[in-house]
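Deliverable D4.2, example record:
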Amino acid sequence: MGSVIFSGPPGTGKTTLAQVIAGTTKSAFIPLNAVLGGVKDVRDAVARARDFRSLHGRKTILFVDEVHRWNKAQQDALLPWVENGTIVLIGATTENPFFEVNAALVSRSRIFRMTPLQPEHLRRIAQMAIQDEERGYGACEVRIDDDALEHLIRIADGDARTMLNALQLAVETGADQNGLTPRDKVHVTLAVAEDSIQAKALLYDKEGDYHYDSISAFIKSLRGSDPDAALYWTARMIVSGEDPKYLFRRMLVFASEDVGLADAHALGVVEAAASAFDRVGMPEGQFHLAHAVLYLTTAAKSNSTLGYFDAVKAIENERRADVPKHLRDGSRDAEGFGHGEGYLYPHAYRDHWVAQTYLPQELSGKVFYTPGTEGDEPARTGSLDQRRMLQMASAGADDDGEVLSYTPGASGLARWDYRSRESTDFFTSLVEICFSRIPVQRHSRICTFEAATPAIAWEALKRVPEGLLASCIAKKEQLALFEHHLSSREWKPHLVSGFPSAMLGEQGIAETRKLFDGATPVFDHIILYKLFAVLDPKLHSQTDAQRELTLLREALSPEGTCLCLESAPESGQRLSQLLTQVVSEDTEHREALIRAEDQIFGAIPEKRVEHISTQLEDSGFTVQRAETIHLSRERTLSSGMLESWFTPGKGGYGNYLDNEIGRLELSAVRAWAIRALAGKTVKWNSGLHVIECRK
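Output generated by the structure prediction step:
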């Protein structure tokens, strides 16, 4: 046989089994203790084994108790003789050999796990000890009551050595003062048995397997919401001598790792219980320990805090990203580099929030936190989803890269400022208008098209949990962000990039049919936002527009509604109107501004809502209602935004005024407008065309 290692609790027969193997194989048996025996003892054992082999032709079994305590020198002295077959090593340990025993020994040995003996095994061992005349008390008349034997077996808890020692003590103390002699009569009662072994000898080592196995069982019981098991493992560790403060430390970790925001009070409860335990001490402090255990066990669970480690992984895998300029400390480098320029102070806005990016540009749209579905955490999902959607609308214009020389009015910051302020109120209004016009049910089948930000798709996703959602998003970047935000959800919509034909035309119809079990797609409602804006006649023919609309009409159910929403630029805000409200002088500058606005707004096609309605009707839709909704919201105008509007090549005012009055006069008008409006909060008007139609 080869070398073996027996691992298991004390009293399970490791040494006995080694002796049985030696007797069965007719091998010499040399016992050695790894703690007491040194290199000299190993060499002596090797010399004896060589003599047994050369003189008697017998193998030698070297039994090493506590083999996990062997050092490298002892191991090196033995390994060559194990490898050439002079010695067969049998090791015994109460620890996990894969962690505690030298790897070289483990690799050359077979590992056997010894388990605690069952009650029937201990009962049989006790009976053999009482009846055996040579190695037991068979020469005497020993009678043990059943309840006394059961007490010994129960307290021994699978340890044969403990039970035999207790049995020996019970029998020996039952003899007279001259000691036990043959033919003596001994009666072991329950009282005698209880005196011989009063408390269970629990196997527990604060540094060993039993410690880690017990704490693992404790944590898993908490995580599994089993209060009975959690109390049991708590009691088992405390009775075995574990420090209660160690359990409190583990529960403090658990409160954030496994309960988290599902019950944000859990951390405070454990902290308070730990503090109370420090003040009260043992044994009454066990009430506070049990209090914390039961609270964590019965609390709702969430591991959403693990999102932090996703962020750590992102840092390790991504190149170092710079802090966005608008988030940098503006108290030091605002003049030279524009640090802090463009930052929007959340408390200045409704609900103390405004859409702006806080991640580096390289990680824009990255999701690290996903709310759980238990306890208090689901309440956070709705507002979080909405804010992420609004941030998606604002993404992409916050940072145009580092600049070594900064000038106020940088185009990237201006666009970011506009889009941040625009998105929060406008998209909220857009969603409210949209879903107030169509009767969406939980089981509705909805198709959406959006030019960029999938604000309508976000809302539809929440409203049709038992239905179906198919969304077309024209911008691939916004589609990728949307898919990323949905990655943790069990139920996801069908998403495609491009126009409706990408979903309903020849290339995409096969995938769409799968949503309808192979049948022709039929949607209860179709919602289109800015479809006509992206179907620009300069880029797309009339035939292209007709094809898209025809495919949509064919996919609409007979009772369904098609809702078309388009921005109404002709209803946009004119700066001249705002300036009239705040200043009365500079009539010449105001007149120049009005002339520029007449040209800007005059370039917008008249009766745009009627034109869109005609296109829908030409495609077979029946227009039931068409209107322009005028929206108004508060908006704070920044100097950077005003600067960009009056810069030739960047803003409409700048282009027209440059041609109308010249560069020098333009500078005067720009300075006048900035002086009058910068930093002011005004009522800002915009418009939205809303057209409802049926098949």
